[in-house]
Amino acid sequence: MKSIKNVIQKLKYKHPWDKFYQRDERTIEVPNMSLYELLREQNKDNLDSIAVNYFNKKWTFRQLFNEINQCAKAMRSQGIRPGDVVTICMANTPEAVISFYAVNKIGAIANMIHPLSAEEEIKASLIATNSVMLVAINLSYAKIKEVVDKTNVYKTIIVSPSDSMPLYLKVGYYLTAGRKIEVPKKSEANVFWNDFMMKGKNYTEKVLAKTTKDQHAVILHSGGTTGVPKNIVLTNGNINAIVEQAKIILPEINNRDSMLTILPLFHCFGLVVGVHAPLCLGASVILIPQFDAKRFDKLLSKYHPTLVPGVPTLFEALITNKYMDNVDLSYVKYAISGGDTLSVAKNEEVNKFLRQHGCRSHIIQGYGMTETTGPVTFGALGSDVLGSVGIPLPSNEVKIVSVDTREEVPLGETGEICISGPTVMVGYLDNEKETNEILEVDKRGKVWVHTGDLGYMNEDGVLFFAQRLKRMLIVSGYNVYPSHIEDVIMEHEAVLNCGVIGVPHPYKVQVPKAYIVLKNGVKVTSKIKRDIKEHCEKNLAKYMLPKEYEFRESLPKTLIGKVDYRQLEKENK
User: Which of 175, 284, 346, 511 could form a disulfide with 50, with the two C-beta atoms 3.0–4.6 Å apart?
Assistant: First the structure.
C-alpha cells in the first residue's frame, strides 16, 4: 500500500512536502530591494505601532525610521559609502538595530561579530572584511584598543548599554557596572554614540542607496563544515526571502505581536528570526542585551511576549527556573527552537511544561545553518512530527544523499542533508576553496549546500536530523569547533599535542574539555596551567573556552595515528 501511495503522491506533487502547502504557497518571489527598503515598505501603514522595546522604553516604527535615517546621515558624513564594510560588535540594544539598518540603507555591508570575541578574533575579522568603521559596545573597548590600529578602521563608535535605557536604569547602570568599564577619550578616531548621531544633523545629501536583492548585505561567521572560522556573505535577497517564507508559514503574526529577542544579533538566528522577520511582519522586538536564566520568570511576566524563539539551552532555562510555578504563559503564540535539535524527551518535557502554564501552543523546531541564512525547514502547517525539524520552507528544497557517492537516496534512508533555495549564501568571503567544498552546482544549474549533517526524510517530506558528520559542539546554542580550540592551544610554546572534545553540561548542553600533552622536559606546574589558560582567554571567545584542562603524558590514537576522540568521549560518559 505504501508504494502505491508514494507513486500517487509523486504524480500529484513535485515534492513530497508540497501537500502541506496550497499551490500558490509553495514558492515565493523575493522582492528586488534592500533589507531597509523591505522593512519600510512592510510598515508604511504601521508607523505608529511599537517596533522596539528596550527595558520598557519604546520606539514606534516612525521613530525607528527617523533614528535609522539620522544614523545613515552620520555614517555618510563620516565617509562611509556603498560597498564599504562597517563592523557591528554589539549586544542587543536599539543602537545595534539602528546601525544595522543604517548601514544597509546607504548600501554598505554589515559585519556582525560577537562582543565577547578575543582580541585576535576581532583583529582577524576587521582585517579579513576590510572594515573601515566599527560600532562597538563599551565592554569590548579594552580589547579593541589593542588591535584597531593594525586594521583599516578609521573611526570607532562607542555605545553604552545605558544609552537608550530609561533614566532610572541609566543612573543605576553607571553606579554599578558602567563606571568600571574602560572607555576612550573623545577624539576623531573614537566617538560616543550620541555625539556620532549629531554628526548627521547637517548632512543634506541623499542617503538611500539604489540597491538590489543580489547585493551583499551582511557578513556573519561560522566554522562551516571544516571547523575553521569563516566569513559568510549573505545578500539582501537571502535575508528578505526568510520574511516572504514567514508570511506563509506564520500568517497570524501582526502588529499586536511581540518577539522576545534574547538571541544575539551577531547570531544568524537572532538577526533574521529575532529581529528582521518580526519587524517586517509588523511585530515589535523586545531587546534583551544580557540574558539571566534565573530571572526568566520576571522577563516573561514583565513583557508577555507572544513569540519566543530560542536555542535548546533557553528552553532548558525555562523549565528549570524555580520561580516559574505560577507564571501564566497563555499569551505565547509560538515557541520556536533552533540552533540545535531538542531530543524527543526534552521536546515532550517542554511541551508538558507549556501546557501546565496555560500555553495553547507547543514548541516547534526548525533546522538550518548560517550558510542558509538560518531556517530551511520548520514544523509548520501540521508537519511538526515529534522528533522532526519540519518541512522545507517555500521555494526551499532538501535532498538526502549518500555520503560516499553523493547520489540521492530514497525517502526514509539516512544520508547527508543537502539544501537549495533562495537563502543559500553567496559563499565564504575570499575563500573559493572552502566555498567550492560546501556548495555544489548540479546539472540544472541549481546550487546545493552540503551541510555535513546526517538525516532522513519520511514519505511526507518531513525532515529528521540524525547527527553531525563534522566534529562540532553546540555550547548554549553557539557553534564551537574543537579543531579551532586545538589550533590555539597548540600555539603555546609548551604544548606538544592536544585534543578537545565536548562533555555534557547541565545548562549549556555541552562544554569543551581540553586534553593536553606537554613537550618533553616541561613539567605540569601551576604556572604552566595558568599560562595556557591565559593564552586561551586571550585568543578564544569566552563561550569557546575549555571548561576543564586535563594534562596527560599521551593521548589515545587511532590505527592511522590520529587522536582518538571517540575514546576520549567514552572516558567522559
Answer: 284
Q: What are phi and psi of 478, to 5 degrees?
A: -95, 140
- Angle ∠(85,31,233) on CA atoms, nearest 5: 30
Q: With contact defined as beta carbons under 8 Å apart, do 494 and 519 qualify?
A: yes
User: Cα dist. 441→217, 238, 476 in Å?
Assistant: 23, 18, 34
| Amino acid 507: pLDDT | 80
Measured in whole angstroms, the distance separating CA 137 from the mean position of its chain's CA atoms is 18
User: Does the fold of domain 473-571 match that of domain 232-468?
Assistant: no
Q: Name the maximum alpha-carbon separation found in the chain.
A: 76
Predicted local confidence at residue 375, as pLDDT: 95
Long-range contacts of 277-280 (CB under 8 A, 24+ apart): 277/242, 277/243, 277/246, 278/253, 278/307, 279/39, 279/43, 279/51, 280/38, 280/39, 280/42, 280/43, 280/240, 280/243, 280/246
Per the CB < 8 A criterion, the answer to whether 357 and 321 are in contact is: no
Comparing CA positions, the residue from 135, 140, 139 lying closest to residue 156 is 135
End-to-end CA gap in the chain: 43
Q: Where would I find the H helices in 206-292?
A: 236-249, 268, 277-280
Q: Which residues contact 260 (CB under 8 A, 6 or more apart)?
A: 286, 288, 299, 300, 303, 305, 307, 308, 309
Confirm whether pTM is higher than 0.85.
yes
| pLDDT of the residue at 572 | 86
| C-alpha cell read off for 482 | 574543537
Q: Beta strands of 55-108 (E only): which ranges? A: 57-60, 85-89
- The enclosing H or E element of 124 equals helix 119-128
Out of 2.160.10.10, 3.40.50.12780, 3.90.105.10, 3.40.50.720, the CATH code matching 232-468 is: 3.40.50.12780
Q: Are 261 and 241 in contact (CB under 8 A)?
A: no
Residue whose grid cell is 501603514: 45
| Domain 473-571, CATH class in plain words | alpha beta
Q: Spelled out in words, what is the top-level CATH class assigned to the domain 58-211?
A: alpha beta
- Scored b (16 or more CB within 10 A) or e, 146-167 reads ebbeebebebbbbbbbbbbbee
SS3 call for 525:
coil
